[in-house]
Specification:
The complex is a heterotrimer of chains A (514), B (336) and C (317). With 514 residues, chain A is an all-alpha fold. Chain A has helices spanning 2-33, 45-78, 84-90, 93-96, 99-110, 124-147, 152-160, 165-194, 197-203, 210-219, 224-251, 269-298, 302-305, 311-342, 346-351, 354-357, 360-370, 378-402, 407-414, 419-447, 464-471, 477-501, 506-509; strands spanning 79-80, 264-265. Chain A has a single domain (2-38, 57-509), classed as MetI-like (MetI-like fold). The chains are: A mainly alpha (514), B alpha/beta (336), C alpha+beta (317).
Chain lengths: 514, 336, 317
């Protein structure tokens, strides 16, 4: 009984936060919009086409990300090679890139002046490439984690029962990985479905999603009724996906510590080819645009790098550091509380996805309506950061909690540890890797552009990302170079953040497989 | 640690609210030398809090939504495309211009600060290499020779995009304008979300393949100013076509229901001061409204249009929403 | 001394403790014997404080524990899967409870190492727990439970995951340790051999009730009813009692019985017979089996006499 009460108390914190920062603003916006829907809103062919397109591109990206990501992840999970752990850490890097900069990187490769000589601009290939750039790493990470939960003994058993490596994959590894993959794909779907996205930027407004429509309805036309109706429609559609995700995640719980198969060097020619192919694919889809950006920044010359010495840049760096740290702190507290409370209630688990499925522009305008006095306060801005960052921590920790068998904390209790002590000495250390993984994602979100640009801001709050956009807001080669240099700095910053956050603790290092 | 910092942040923001503060709402492109702002703060005795509310259109909507409880005392950056909307919503205090010499451009009920032109830019190198003549009218852009060469911003999500649409409507007449847009669509116009996207991913000068982009008349000058090796000539040029030039006048006004009236009024006058007027062109690439202000020599490289097609702000207020949705229907929706 | 008084606990429809009362004296080992799912493990968790009883009292040394938090009870519980902490090495696992009792780390480690040495695990201190064999894990778990000098030791199927050979050698060691520790212990098992080998007294549980409780010999000499009799290992259960092996006499002088089935055991053979529609199972030692030099086969008839005077009547009848 006591446990239930304390969980309810724990749930209060994230719930209050979600209500104050997400639901109440949306409700306020809907209220402001009143009832006056445009009569033909849902009978508009164009809008219907956008909805269908939003769904289609999200679904196609999911299929492609799975088809490419799974073999790639298998190679990364099973073969040892120098730099493997670093590559797994760096997989989050695309997340940090402002979409416009990523588009510049992509065009530097496949644009009219691209180094590959292959002009794919305005073809569907580039759209899909753009979506994969952001989402493939997500699937790869999930699949790597999934494959690390396949006990070595089970694989060995399959092999002794006459399975080839290929059959063993389908009959042993695939069933284990399936729920993980499904949950990662849900996330990919949500991102593609409700985002502005690189693909749309590369494809032009013909390929805009419904979210773009909502954005222009709210920000330009002030048609809150239609926007609210669309936002609710999206909420229902993607909320269903989020609920599916939560359900899957709980199903995939495998309490206990498994001893996974340690990666080994690729031995045969086929294995080496597979590994090399995987690395080439990864480089092509995830690294190439980033490298193109870094390469262009490096070749920009010393004058371009002088931007680093400017007061604006230093202030932006300091802000980025400060805001990310604060957002991470808040995300850590909220995420932990949410994850602990969500052990009990499935709906609460699904609620962690609320920040992903709500239309950002609706929330931003709703917050403005709801708290006009706070609209330009740092607290609200940080609240917005935390809102978008904390679900990653909640998600990751909730999954890890599923993996802690109840008898471990119980054993600690019988050995004289109070409930908080049992948590601190037994559960918490076991949650560490997942917690850090969630924090890394949260950091990527906080460092990346996301929707904070929709909120009121002040010049003295300029972060690296906003500075990059400012530079790209004016013409000139030097502006472009400065943006590219700043993007490279952002990447460096993000890399160090990921490496620090996910630095394996001394004790874990010998068992660290992901 | 985190909690401490958070507390500190909360306390400082709470403390800050107690000092005399002038809240200035601006669009995200606002920029002014720090020394000038500091000088104003010293002279007026108030702290200036600049609040950036996104693109100008977004900013006006935020102002309208919060009119019961204004988020600012003074607003800068409302232009003639948005003035009517703001006035109809009643969010602006009628603000009279400071007494003194006449200015080049005015805004009814607001104090004009700067102006500029939205127009087509072209990539000089591209046209030279392709040996293609520059188009002499908007109509020529719909000919096969110019297929797939133009990128515009979506007027539903971008201020220059909207300005360009307004110019075509004014310059060609409403019906011919939308007929022209239809032909332009058939000739492969690309629509980008905003200026940065169009200029940096679609314009052939940068990452893209299209040598004609909707931009500003000062962009060629800025290209030179922000070039790496100081160029003698701009790499881009203005394509000043009938129906393709919009004059944008930006101004400042007091927000209805805002506080700090005296300081707000001082700020309005401050934006008209010679020092600010001289600083603005370099910071925001707009022309000062006060005549006789010495411009940075680089502005000589930007050709100032002699003619433009700009509907008056009342007409814009009444019709632009209808024009934008019609544009969306003609350019984006047809074919689905 | 541990006293359970009228404990009740139900999960919805499933009753796991129904006015259950039991005592365990100091230095005594009580085995809880019952089929899977009869509530044995829940009972242990209630005693340890991990589950709350719906009603009833748990007293240890005369003090009511019912409302105390698990960490305040000084009751050690050894889990079925040992629940060793995977993020800690062997030494830290064993020292865990000592550190919780605010012992200086150095002292805690010294005691942990001593406890490990006593269980023959010297040199294992820095090993990760998942690299240990089942028997080693079991001994680490025992050391972890005993090193804090608990006032009561609870053991949940401690041998179920071990192989038969290891089980026997460890059971002997267990008995010695428990006797030396002089603390009351409760052992939960579904294996009657284990219960009889380790416990001073055995309580047979069925659906949350103690059906019968007593020393192993008492149980064997007077099972309460047919269910208890068959659960503690009697094969030939009749309506009013059981026929022990000694009640059966073999030889050609006796009426014939049909051999239905013959199974080899580790020592001797098990024979299933029918005689006048009655079914019997006999365990023959190697020496008894020697009466049949040609061996026994299904379908064969042999003489079987039954000495009804040796019938053990049910105590509850």
């Amino acid at each position: 009984m006591r446990a239930v009460f304390s969980r309810q108390a724990l749930a209060l914190l994230p719930l209050a936060f979600l209500i104050l920062m997400a639901l109440a603003p949306l409700a306020r916006l809907l209220y402001e919009g009143g009832g006056g829907l445009s009569a033909n809103l849902f009978f508009d062919d164009y809008l219907r086409w956008r909805l269908v397109w939003s769904l289609t591109q999200a679904a196609v990206t999911c299929v492609l990300a799975l088809a490419i990501g799974l073999p790639l992840a298998w190679a990364l999970a099973r073969f040892a090679f120098p730099g493997r752990v670093l590559i797994l850490r760096l997989l989050l890097l695309p997340f940090v890139m402002p979409t416009l900069v990523a588009a510049l990187g992509v065009l530097a490769l496949f644009g009219p002046h691209g180094v590959t000589g292959l002009n794919l601009q305005d073809t569907p290939w580039l759209l899909l490439y753009g979506n994969l750039f952001y989402n493939l790493p997500l699937v790869i990470r999930a699949a790597c984690e999934a494959l690390a939960t396949v006990p070595a003994s089970r694989l060995a058993a399959a092999r002794t029962l006459g399975c080839t490596a290929w059959r063993a994959f389908w009959r042993v590894e695939w069933p284990v990985a399936r729920p993980w993959l499904a949950s990662a794909l849900c996330l990919v779907f949500l991102y593609c479905f409700s985002g502005f996205g690189l693909a749309l930027l590369l494809g032009g407004q013909r390929y805009a999603t419904v979210e773009v429509e909502i954005y222009s309805l709210v920000a330009y036309e002030l048609n809150l009724a239609d926007a609210g109706a669309l936002a609710l429609l999206l909420l229902c559609l993607s909320g269903g996906v989020a609920f599916g995700y939560a359900w899957l995640e709980r199903r995939l719980a495998t309490p206990g510590k498994v001893e996974p198969l340690p990666p080994r060097p690729a031995a045969t020619l086929a294995e080496r080819t597979l590994l090399a192919g995987a690395l080439v694919l990864l480089a092509l889809f995830a690294a190439a645009p980033l490298l193109a950006v870094a390469g262009r920044a490096l070749s920009a010359g010393v004058e371009a790098w002088a931007v680093l010495g400017e007061g604006d840049t230093l202030a932006a760096l300091a802000n980025t550091l400060r805001f990310s740290a604060l957002a991470l702190g808040a995300a850590a507290v909220l995420g932990l509380a949410h994850a602990l409370a969500a052990q009990r209630w499935l709906w609460l688990r699904a609620a962690a996805f609320l920040p992903f499925v709500l239309s950002p522009v609706c929330v931003a305008f709703g917050l403005l309506l709801l708290y006009p006095g706070w609209s330009a306060s740092l607290a609200l801005l940080l609240g917005a950061y935390a809102l978008l960052a904390y679900p990653f921590v909640a998600k990751s920790v909730a999954a890890a909690l599923d993996g802690v068998p109840p008898q471990w904390p119980q054993a600690a209790r019988t050995l004289g540890a109070s409930a908080p002590r049992a948590f601190a000495r037994v559960v918490w250390p076991l949650l560490q890797p997942a917690f850090r993984r969630g924090l890394a994602f949260a950091a990527a979100t906080a460092l990346g552009e996301f929707a904070v640009t929709l909120f009121l801001s002040r010049p003295e709050w300029t972060t690296l990302t906003t500075l990059i956009y400012q530079r790209l807001g004016r013409p000139g080669a030097a502006s472009l170079d400065a943006a590219l240099v700043l993007s490279s700095v952002l990447m460096l910053f993000a890399v160090s953040a990921f490496v620090i956050i996910e630095w394996p603790a001394r004790r874990d290092r010998d068992s660290d497989h992901a | 640690m985190f909690k401490k910092v958070l507390w500190l942040a909360l306390c400082t923001s709470a403390l800050g609210a107690q000092a005399a503060e002038l809240r200035v709402l601006t669009h995200s492109s606002f920029a002014l030398s720090k020394e000038l702002l500091a000088g104003f703060e010293q002279q007026s005795g108030v702290k200036v809090v600049v609040i950036k509310a996104g693109d100008a259109g977004e900013m006006v909507n935020k102002l309208i939504l919060t009119r019961a409880n204004p988020i600012a005392d003074v607003v800068y950056g409302i232009d003639n495309t948005l003035l009517g909307k703001a006035q109809q919503a009643g969010v602006l205090e009628p603000t009279a211009s400071p007494a003194g010499a006449a200015v080049k451009q005015t805004l009814p009920g607001m104090v004009s600060v700067d102006y500029g032109y939205v127009t087509l830019n072209y990539d000089k190198a591209w046209f030279a290499k392709q040996k293609l003549a520059l188009p002499k009218s908007l109509d020529e852009l719909t000919r096969p020779a110019y297929k797939n060469l133009v990128v515009v911003e979506n007027p539903a999500t971008s201020s220059p995009g909207l300005a360009f649409l307004l110019a075509t409507v004014k310059g060609l007449g409403e019906e011919p304008a939308f007929a022209w847009w239809g032909k332009l669509r058939d000739n492969g116009v690309k629509v980008a979300k905003g200026w940065s996207e169009a200029y940096y991913t679609d314009f052939s000068k940068n990452g893209g393949s299209r040598p004609i982009v909707v931009s500003y008349a000062t962009s060629p000058a800025a290209e030179v100013f922000y070039s790496k090796q100081k160029l003698a000539e701009a790499p881009t040029g203005n394509l000043l076509l009938k129906g393709g030039v919009f004059q944008q006048v930006e101004g400042v006004a007091l927000v209805k229901g805002g506080g700090q009236k005296k300081a707000a009024r001082q700020f309005v006058d401050f934006l008209r001061s010679d020092a600010v007027q001289a600083d603005l062109p370099r910071q925001m690439w707009m022309y000062p409204v006060v005549p006789g202000v010495k411009l940075n020599p680089v502005f000589a490289l930007a050709q100032q249009p002699v003619a433009h097609d700009t509907p008056d702000s009342q007409a814009i207020a009444a019709k632009s929403a209808g024009w934008v949705s019609r544009w969306t229907r003609v350019v984006l929706k047809s074919g689905y | 001394m541990l006293e359970l008084v009228n404990l009740c606990k139900a999960f919805g429809q499933r009753v796991v403790a129904d006015h259950l009362s039991l005592n365990v004296a100091d230095g005594e080992t009580l085995a809880l014997l019952g089929p899977s799912g009869c509530g044995k493990s829940t009972l242990l968790k209630m005693i340890a404080g991990l589950e709350r009883p719906d009603a009833g009292q748990i007293r240890l040394g005369g003090v009511d524990l019912t409302a105390l938090a698990p960490e305040a009870r000084q009751v050690a519980l050894m889990f079925q899967d040992f629940a060793l902490f995977p993020h800690l090495d062997v030494r830290d696992n064993v020292a865990f409870g000592l550190i919780e009792r605010r012992l200086p780390r150095r002292e805690a480690y010294a005691r942990a190492e001593r406890a490990l040495a006593e269980l023959g695990l010297a040199g294992y201190e820095a090993r990760r727990v998942w690299t240990l064999s089942g028997g080693e894990q079991q001994r680490v778990a025992l050391a972890r439970a005993l090193v804090t000098s608990p006032r009561l030791l609870l053991l949940d199927e401690p041998f179920s995951s071990l192989d038969a050979h290891l089980r026997q050698s460890l059971q002997a060691e267990f008995r010695r340790r428990l006797a030396a520790a002089r603390i009351p212990a409760i052992l939960v098992t579904h294996d009657r051999a284990e219960a009889f080998a380790l416990a001073d007294r055995v309580a047979v549980l069925q659906q949350g009730r103690v059906v019968q409780c007593g020393r192993p010999q008492e149980l064997l000499a007077a099972p309460r009813n047919a269910w208890v009799a068959s659960f503690i290992g009697y094969h030939n259960v009749l309506d009013d009692g059981v026929l022990p092996e000694q009640a059966f006499l073999l030889g050609p002088a006796h009426p014939p019985a049909r051999v239905e089935r013959v199974d080899s055991l580790s020592e001797g053979i098990r024979v299933e017979l029918t005689q006048q529609a009655a079914h019997f199972t006999l365990t023959l030692s190697a020496r008894e089996a020697a009466q049949f030099p040609e061996g026994l086969r299904a379908g064969q008839d042999i003489g079987l006499g039954i000495d009804r005077s040796r019938l053990i009547r049910f105590a509850g009848a």
